[in-house]
Amino acid sequence: MRKTGQACGIRDNISKFRNNGIEIFGISVDTKEKIKSFIDSYSLNFPLLSDENKEVSKAYGVLNALGFDSRVTFIIDKNGNIAKVIRDVDVEKHADQVYEFALKLK
Question: What is the pLDDT of residues 33-44, one digit of tens each?
Answer without folding.
Answer: 999 999 999 999
